[in-house]
Inverse folding.
């Protein structure tokens, strides 16, 4: 493995990705084909590497070096930056308590047809704006066996730092891509044999139990924005509108909860 590089200057340009650059800027980095993202915590870094993502550098405090020796040995060409807790906090602006950080190259997005080939149950996230919610949906999708996730052009980025952290790195385990043809892409999924069911409080909605009773061979669950829900263009293309029956005057759940319920019921 390469010798760790001791950091002594908070302004060291070699580690600017961990301090000065926002998620949006990292995504547009020109020295990587598809940009860069940050993986935070030893567990998340390992999941990214297990998914085949390529590291650009590692960044961690002295006390975590030994626990990551196997990773550094497998990626001996990748620089390892380390320093005291105080130095790393001066660089990042926060105390590192989750182990390692890593700057990773974003992989190329795969075509929708490739992602859904052979899948029996997929989810679509339409225009979610909160990265926390996106990460939570991915974590539930991984835990409950969803085969793939598609995100629309305006949906928050699953590889932004907060989304990755909330997902606990499961965003690297569930196949996903952007569905650029939107809303027309729904028709492509229908032609591929998917029953497209939108989670909705709209008129004519059936219960989640009723959806499950039909035992669709291929099912696509669509989740709308945190505020308005599904767009009118998508609502008109659905095969089913589906609602989760609730009690005590509660009329809706947040997207993290509703997706988990839907994924569990349709497992």
């Amino acid at each position: 493995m390469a010798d760790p590089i001791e950091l002594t200057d908070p302004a060291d340009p070699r580690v600017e990705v961990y301090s000065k650059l926002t998620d949006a800027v990292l995504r547009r980095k020109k020295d990587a084909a598809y940009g860069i993202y940050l993986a935070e915590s030893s567990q998340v870094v390992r999941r990214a590497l297990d998914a085949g993502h390529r590291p650009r550098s590692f960044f961690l405090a002295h006390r975590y070096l030994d626990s990551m020796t196997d990773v550094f040995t497998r990626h001996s060409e990748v620089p390892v930056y380390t320093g005291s807790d105080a130095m790393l906090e001066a660089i990042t602006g926060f105390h590192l308590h989750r182990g390692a950080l890593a700057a990773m190259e974003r992989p190329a997005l795969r075509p929708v047809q490739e992602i859904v080939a052979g899948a029996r149950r997929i989810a679509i996230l339409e225009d979610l704006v909160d990265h926390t919610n996106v990460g939570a949906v991915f974590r539930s999708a991984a835990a409950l066996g969803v085969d793939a996730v598609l995100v629309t052009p305006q949906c928050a980025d699953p590889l932004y730092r907060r989304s990755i952290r909330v997902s606990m790195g499961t965003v690297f385990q569930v196949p996903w891509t952007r569905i650029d043809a939107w809303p027309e892409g729904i028709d492509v999924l229908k032609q591929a044999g998917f029953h497209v069911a939108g989670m909705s409080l709209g008129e004519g909605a059936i219960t989640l139990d009723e959806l499950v009773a039909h035992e669709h061979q291929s099912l696509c669950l669509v989740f709308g924005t945190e505020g308005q829900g599904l767009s009118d263009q998508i609502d008109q293309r659905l095969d089913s509108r589906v609602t989760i029956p609730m009690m005590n005057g509660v009329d809706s759940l947040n997207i993290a909860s509703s997706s988990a319920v839907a994924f569990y019921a349709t497992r």
